[in-house]
Amino acid sequence: MPADLNHNLNDKKFIMTANIQIHPLRNRSNYSRFMQPHLTNTPLSFSGLSLTEPLLTAVSRLGFKQPTPVQQQAIPLALEYKDLLVSAETGSGKSAAFLLPTLHHLLTLPSRKFGTRALILVPTRELAQQLFKQCRQLIEFTDLRTGIITGGDDFRLQQNMLRRNTEIVIATPGRLLELMEQETPNFSHLEVLILDEADRMLDMGFSEDVLTIVKSCNAQRQTLLFSATLTHFGVIKMADRILQNHEVVALNTLHDGHRNIEQQIVLADDNDHKQKLLAWLLLNETYDKALVFTNSRVQADTLRSPLRGQKLRVGVLHGEMDQKDRNRMMQLYREGAVNVMIATDLAARGLDIKGINLVINFDVPRNGINYIHRIGRTGRVDELGLTIALVKSTEWNLMSGIERFLKQKFKRRTIKELEGKYQGPKKLKASGKAAGIKKKTEPKKPAVTEKLKIRHRDKKNIGKRRVPTNKISSI
Q: Do 304 and 180 fall into the same domain?
């Protein structure tokens, strides 16, 4: 790649206005080698995207003024009925980037054929519910109908919804497969298939489920695959299998920096120290809503009572909760009755709630991808956000690895009132990880020969002949 082209690719402003096209190749290295960015005259308003009047009315009513970069780049290509692989950071407006062209297609090309016309697959129930809500807002001035299929809801109601020939279906793969076993969905005339948060769907083990669903769909469909990153090899492999002559739009990749999010780390001695730090932050920081991440459901439940004891309005969200309880907790969080939510990665994936301006990682996430999705809950679009990671000694290397993966250095912060003993590793490797202390090798001690136990009666008879048994009996 030429030096001047490589320089432009690292410039965030350039990437935001570039349409990055990639030939559909079969291995990961070729994807980066064949990237050919070129500037396009992108429209600065939704009216310039040639959308139908009902959609423009809905967009205006929702308060959307200008398309985001991913919308400017993806919508025109999708309107040409092209298959797309789109990568953009969390909170960049990806949902509208695939909903608007899909709805435009359904409105301008009405069909009398039976069956679902557009299918949107998502990894979690919460994301499905958010997309369902946004889709209903966009089709408010049309006759289109949308339905949602997720686990935890009534099976028969979902079957009836599909039999009523609902045009747009938003679903999670697990429940949709259960319905397919009953031969309820009809995707033989499907016109648009969308995979949202594809990288997370693969991480959750839905790869085979997704491929099974794809096989049942109309082969002449348009397919749009949206992911937070192209560094996930599974996404590229999936794209090669389900997309045809596709183009790639790569905007604001994970390494671009999140300039509107301040990222801090606070060192902690142990989990008890972390709980004190967490309570202090939630009581002293300024925020509308705060989101606290843990790596386990047990830890999430453990934190709830101590924080409520501090008079904080705390809720918990994780995968083991009943769906009705999860829906209720989400509603309380949206309304502000609960302003501190403790959540796991699985439950909070795809959360799009206004007013989250503080994210605290009580547990350091297991990898950089999870970290970027966690902090992406704040600082959405043009809002400012603050993220704080509580790091103990056993998590230092994990945090250092995330910094290296993102090519960023997080701001070190100390809370004087709760300053702990742990101040970081004494020695660091070039990678930023803690240098291990070599154990002193002790000199080997000479082998101890085991002493044989000699009885006194055996010792005093040494050298004497043994008296024959018959002689002893005759005496």
A: no
